Amino acid sequence: MQVYEVSLEVGERPCPGRACPQCGGCARLHKHGHYTRWRGVDGAQPVKVERYVCPRCRHTWSVIPSGMMSYRSLPVEHFEQLADAHLGLAGGGARPPPATEKENGCVRRAIKALSKRIPYLCGLFGQQLPVFANADICRFWRALRELGPTMDILVRLAREFKTSLLGSYRSLRAFWEREPLPI
């Protein structure tokens, strides 16, 4: 499972959820190492992602560093700017610098993934988002952005629903829905 660093206090460990069927949130998580992710589209900057494990249920928790999205290398703020421009939400202020071909590809793939999750996310947010008859990504993105900044939405989805904006966590999918790991 994943927790965003911005949702934690300084030096605070993530805590297991009260809804956990094994431990009920009463166990203290232990540091379980880290792994490296690459920040940015070019993957030029390595970032250490801390991992924790619950000693009772053995679920692991990753703490996603500030400004990063789960399963994506594009920073959240930059993704938000590019998606706003791509989907026609850019304001009247100064335009951001033009996106590179790699950034455009990242945004196109992210928007494609997001458009497949519109009914699911509308169901999670309930009456806060209107139900769209078709997968109109522009109207959905506009309604989603009215809920707040993308980082706040990512934190809320992770904390309340144990999912992400662009895809479900692989560890929480049923075994028949998971892709087989390469051998």
Description:
The chain starts with a strand and ends in a 22-residue tail after the last helix. 31% of the residues lie in helices and 15% in strands. It is globular and about 45 Å long. It has 2 domains: 67 residues, no CATH class; 86 residues, no CATH class. Helix 1 crosses helix 2. Strands 1-4-3-2 form a 4-stranded mixed sheet. By secondary structure, the protein is an alpha+beta fold. The protein is built from 5 helices and 4 strands; from the N terminus they run ββββααααα. Strand 2 and strand 3 form a beta hairpin.
Question: Could you give a quick summary of the protein structure above?
Answer:
This protein has 183 residues and is of the alpha+beta class. The chain folds into 2 domains: 2-68, no CATH class; 76-161, no CATH class.
